[in-house]
Amino acid sequence: MNTTNSISNQKLKWRVFNDKLFSIVMMTLAFISAVPLLSILYQLVKKGYKQVRLSFFIEVAPDTMQAMMAKANHEIIPGGIANGIVGTLIIVGMASLIAIPLGLLTGVYLSESSKGKMANIVRFVVDMLQGVPSIVLGVIAYIWVVKPLTSGFSALAGSVALSIMMLPSIIRSTEETLKMIPPTLKEAALSLGVPYYKTILKVLLPTGMSGISTGIILGISRIAGETAPLMLTALGSSAINLDITQPSSAIPLLVWEFYNDPNLVNLIWGASLVLLLIIFLLNIVAKTISKKWKVQY
Amino acid sequence: MESTVLNKTDDRIIQIESPLLSIDRLSVSYGGNKFSITDVSAGIQKNKITAIMGPSGCGKSTLLRAINRMHELYPETHHKGSISLGGEDIYKINPIELRRKIGMVFQRPNPFPTMSIYDNVIAAYILNGIKLKRSEKDEIVERSLREVGLWDETKDALHKKGTFLSGGQQQRLCIARALAYTPEVILLDEPTSALDPIATAKIEDLLVKLKKDYTIILVTHNMGQAARISDHSMFMYLGELVEYGRTKNMFTTPKDERTEAYLTGKFG
Fold this sequence. Notes:
The complex is a heterodimer of chains A (297) and B (268).
Chain A: H1 2-5, H2 9-48, H3 54-58, H4 64-72, H5 82-112, H6 117-131, H7 134-146, H8 155-180, H9 183-191, H10 196-207, H11 209-224, H12 228-231, H13 251-260, H14 267-292
Helix pairs in contact in A: 2-14, 5-8, 5-11, 5-13, 6-8, 7-8, 8-11, 9-10, 11-14, 13-14
Chain B: E1 21-29, E2 35-44, E3 49-53, H1 60-67, E4 78-85, E5 88-89, H2 95-101, E6 102-105, H3 117-121, H4 123-127, H5 134-147, H6 151-154, H7 167-179, E7 185-189, H8 197-210, E8 215-219, H9 223-229, E9 232-237, E10 240-246, H10 247-252, H11 257-263
Parallel strand pairs in B: 3-8, 3-9, 6-7, 7-8
Antiparallel strand pairs in B: 1-2, 1-4, 4-5, 9-10
Helix pairs in contact in B: 5-7, 7-8
């Protein structure tokens, strides 16, 4: 009887070995998945750090002649990506202004009437929207905004395209966050004679602030690097442009432009580095907020 | 007055003279033809503690929630019969208005987690956008916290989050929040079921003290609690109000055999 329960020494060794093997395989795979990011960062820093000076942030992109001259003299290419930075700030900022209220309210609606037929349709559409290729959203914004509204390529059209891209992330994070809030909190507010809309605005949304703002920031970081839809909408501009009805540059658009110009191609490293750092920063902010603002029920 | 409880003439239901609240042949359904409570008639006496007892699913919470119309949160609810508060039909008052007259405390303490203790007490004013002077706020906070015996424990920490308090303190904070609006009636839905015995005892003492200023209706799973603090008791079973009487009488000489079976622990 005893033999069935006790494990022979040999078997035990085999098991311990398997255990270790499994841990090692896991760690190796985890490391491998981190390699691309680390090597990208390494490449960008190595090749781009010289470019990233103060002038890189306050001067507009050089033209191909200036770059050619500098290269001939073995100097660093002059100019910077200020037009791209300003353009990205404006386009992404406007996209957020459009998407945040819309996304918040849709998320509230989905969490409040979670079983309704309409809610199911909306939820399905939002999920579909998440899978729509970004270039298609660019086409849509071209048809909606570029042609009828601004009669030409414009920052506004870019914002519309990006705002649609942001929506799913905001809607879903709002919905999921609000669903996590215990229903008794809503009851508490309603039982104090607080009207329904104020209960949503003043109790549920502030309580879910941490999760909701994390979703918003991740949505922003997702669109900040988008290029394809902007090619069809914002187009690009060699100067800093504050008029939203006019074409505008953006950092990812500049990377694309630099890539296409043999004289400017060295600038893609610096521009990519700045873009990546912005997105990193947004992610860190999102993480911090979700930790710091976390509400304890 | 039609609203006085005269529909059931049997002696299992006590007749309350000039009740503050009178429930008249009330049936409530959460949708369809299935009613969670059927044909309940009872008067609630002012400045008394009325306990509602019964096994799970007997409709005691539904009855309680019908009184401040919280059951209407479920979209398909409908009801028959009526409830009146001081002679006024509550289904003709806007629920927002009504809930300011009838405060409620829930099973689990639920202070607003984003608010300080101070703000939690005056949450009804803050959330309803009622502007108060600083001195008025201070006065309400102090009065309400004193009423629930939480003032001495929290007066130096009023600006800490309400969720830092212990469970029993949180529940007293929730009672203070309900009192801040000076309601006429306070409904409590098993307010001590999530608390330890010491915190429970404190809440029970508190409720006995509060009844001189408020009318209290208490749903409880705990027969001992009903026996200790209530003046009147209702026993509900399968959606029906089986027996309603003075607590002393009901616990000593129940008139219905189902009440007796429940009180002697034969089911529950």
